[in-house]
């Protein structure tokens, strides 16, 4: 049963005690956390919840590790050059690699950080994913003989061929993929159906092409680069086509593959964002729209990297969607919790699940603008100084459905809420926000279930039918959730200001919910008035000197030092 494991890198040394094989003490050194995490992943060892301060790491030994323990082996793994070499992950979204010129600029940007050894994650070029989805839809009804003429297929072909041409690269791998894509569309036309599984295979061509083109272009510039399809290197997912979850086995598999390739032959990895491999089906899956952000944070966690950079076409996470408020401005710092809430409640800037791996591994995420690299961007970390923070961002999620459910039974009856939620569970419908009293509950349903598909009227009718067995139900459609993300410790001030604005604009709030997360207050209003409300709230909180006004009130009240009225933002 005895064992000893020694891990050394960057002046950090770790050793597992013979007497206590389920925990591991280590002598700390610079970067020891990262080194150890990387080491464990590399060795396929699962680490339980860590207590780094006490220098004890509980290790959940899986069978392979236990086996090596029984042999009383001493495993010494010199990690010099593993944890230190690949340092950051840089993800570039579709807008950042939309054309040959953009690819050139991105390559230049990457090379302007010669001290970094980055893992690159790319999305499909520009609107390629949308075009592939439209091409698939057209194929279902166009007939086999017309499949080659689908307009969106030709847009995809033209964009990629033009890019190859302009970058002056060989591109033979892309010609093969474009042929394969056309065959696939003919197949869809023949079958007259497009299943979620085929949809994922279809859209995967976008990332497979963009990464091949970019890696080849880097090589043309004299930079060693290696292209990877995520489904070949250990991105193991659930089989929920179009919206798959990353499974735990992904982390050690990825670390092993990327590290060992690097050791044998160092070359910048260029990895397809957005896609994975279903663990049962072994078919290509996708992580939901915008899923390349999640690819990047998964790699950051797997390799224990120093930083995850997500390069977009805006100066970071903004105080509001710039398409709604042209005056939206960048937020310098956010916590993982704030960013996750913002993403979950509809901000398109980050994938809803993408903060999870970063938060779990405590790797900071930086959101930057590839069109304006000098802009500082947004830094997302575990904690930030909230004493000066009030409202961070306003997020709008439109076209949601709200249900008002009032129990038909008397006050004091137990089990009402349990019954309501079991109905949603049985029907597989996710609930967003909830406000409740003892005999009634109002809740909102996400119609798009995180973009994977629309809730159809039939499903809604069925929910209402089931709920009507125990309650009086009002189904309210065309509603919007306005989420106020910020310091909910200061909710009274936020709500006072918000309701003032809404009252002035003649808007009646139909539901309020303040989540346990303490970073989000959600207000439900009619779709028709939502954008106007968001603009008015943004103007009041971020544009009209509200904080100066608030400070004045405090000064008048003789409590100028109250943190409630400190300047907004980070
Ligand atoms: N709060 C917000 N902050 C920043 N961008 C936002 C916000 N809400 C919506 N957006 C939109 O998200 C876009 C960036 O996300 P996305 O299109 O996924 O970028 P990429 O394709 O480069 O990854 C921006 O162009 C902007 O229009
Ligand atoms: N190409 C995929 C994945 C992605 O992440 O894209 P982007 O980074 O451009 O949002 C999509 O359009 O959904």
Would you write up a description of this structure?
With 570 residues, this protein is an alpha/beta fold. It has a domain at 88-312: 3-Layer(aba) Sandwich (Carbamate kinase), CATH 3.40.1160.10. Helix content is 38%, strand content 23%. It has 16 helices and 23 strands. It has an 8-stranded mixed β-sheet with strand order 9-11-8-7-14-16-17-15, sandwiched between helices. A 6-stranded mixed β-sheet has the order 4-5-3-2-1-6, covered by helices on one side. Strands 19-20-18-21-23-22 form a 6-stranded antiparallel β-sheet. Strand 4 and strand 5 form a beta hairpin. Helix 6 (172-191) runs antiparallel to helix 7 (196-220). The two termini are 51 Å apart. Residues 1-32, 42-84, 449-453 and 547-570 have low confidence and may be disordered. The structure holds adenosine-5'-diphosphate and aspartyl phosphate (PHD). The site of aspartyl phosphate has 12 residues, from loops. It comes from Vanilla planifolia (Vanilla). InterPro entries: AceGlu_kinase-like_sf, ACT-like_dom_sf, ACT_Aspartokinase, ACT_dom, AK-LysC-like, AK1_ACT_1, Asp/Glu/Uridylate_kinase, Asp_kinase. This is aspartate kinase. One of its GO terms (molecular function) is ATP binding. Its EC number is 2.7.2.4.
């Amino acid at each position: 049963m005895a064992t000893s494991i020694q891990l050394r890198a960057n002046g950090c040394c770790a050793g597992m005690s013979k007497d206590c094989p389920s925990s591991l003490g280590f002598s700390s050194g610079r970067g020891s956390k990262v080194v150890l995490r990387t080491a464990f992943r590399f060795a396929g060892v699962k680490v339980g919840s860590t207590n780094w301060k006490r220098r004890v790491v509980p290790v959940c030994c899986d069978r392979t590790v236990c086996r090596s323990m029984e042999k009383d082996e001493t495993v010494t793994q010199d990690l010099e050059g593993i944890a230190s070499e690949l340092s950051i992950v840089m993800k570039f979204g579709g807008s950042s690699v939309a054309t040959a010129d953009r690819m050139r600029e991105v390559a230049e940007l990457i090379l302007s950080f010669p001290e970094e050894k980055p893992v690159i994650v790319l999305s499909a070029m520009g609107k390629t994913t949308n075009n592939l989805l439209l091409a698939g839809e057209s194929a279902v009804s166009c007939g086999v003989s017309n499949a080659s003429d689908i307009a969106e297929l030709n847009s995809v072909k033209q964009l990629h061929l033009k890019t190859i041409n302009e970058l002056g690269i060989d591109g033979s791998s892309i010609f093969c993929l474009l042929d394969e894509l056309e065959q696939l569309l003919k197949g869809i036309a023949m079958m007259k159906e497009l299943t979620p599984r085929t949809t994922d295979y279809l859209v995967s061509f976008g990332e497979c092409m963009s990464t091949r083109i970019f890696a080849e272009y880097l090589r043309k510039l004299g930079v060693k680069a290696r292209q990877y399809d995520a489904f070949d290197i250990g991105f193991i997912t659930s089989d929920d086509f179009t919206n798959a979850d990353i499974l735990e086995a992904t982390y050690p598999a990825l670390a092993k593959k990327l590290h060992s390739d690097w050791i044998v032959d160092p070359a910048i990895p260029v990895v397809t964002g957005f896609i994975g491999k279903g663990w049962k089906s072994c078919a290509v899956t996708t992580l939901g729209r915008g899923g390349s952000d999640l690819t990047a944070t998964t790699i950051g966690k797997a390799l224990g990297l120093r930083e995850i950079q997500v390069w977009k076409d805006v100066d970071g996470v903004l105080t509001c969607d710039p398409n709604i408020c042209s005056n939206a401005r960048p937020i310098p710092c956010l916590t993982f919790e704030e960013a996750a809430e913002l993403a979950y409640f509809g901000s398109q800037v980050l994938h809803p699940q993408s903060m999870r791996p970063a938060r779990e591994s405590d790797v900071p995420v930086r959101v930057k603008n590839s069109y304006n690299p000098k802009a500082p961007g947004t830094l997302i970390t575990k904690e930030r100084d909230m004493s000066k923070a009030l409202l961070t961002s306003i997020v709008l999620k439109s076209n949601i459905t709200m249900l008002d459910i009032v129990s038909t039974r008397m006050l004091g009856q137990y089990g009402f809420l349990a019954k309501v939620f079991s109905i949603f569970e049985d029907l597989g419908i996710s609930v967003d926000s909830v406000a409740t009293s003892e005999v009634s509950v109002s809740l909102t349903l996400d119609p798009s279930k995180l973009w994977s598909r629309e809730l159809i009227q039939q499903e809604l009718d069925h929910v209402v039918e089931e709920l009507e067995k125990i309650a009086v139900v009002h189904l309210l459609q065309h509603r919007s959730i306005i989420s106020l993300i910020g310091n909910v410790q200061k909710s009274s001030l936020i709500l006072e200001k918000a309701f003032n604005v809404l009252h002035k604009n003649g808007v009646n709030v139909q539901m309020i919910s303040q989540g346990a997360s303490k970073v989000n207050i959600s207000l439900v209003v009619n779709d028709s008035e939502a954008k106007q409300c968001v603009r008015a709230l943004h103007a009041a909180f971020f544009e009209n000197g509200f904080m100066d006004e608030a400070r004045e009130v405090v000064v008048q009240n003789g409590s100028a030092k109250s943190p409630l009225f400190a300047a907004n933002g980070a």
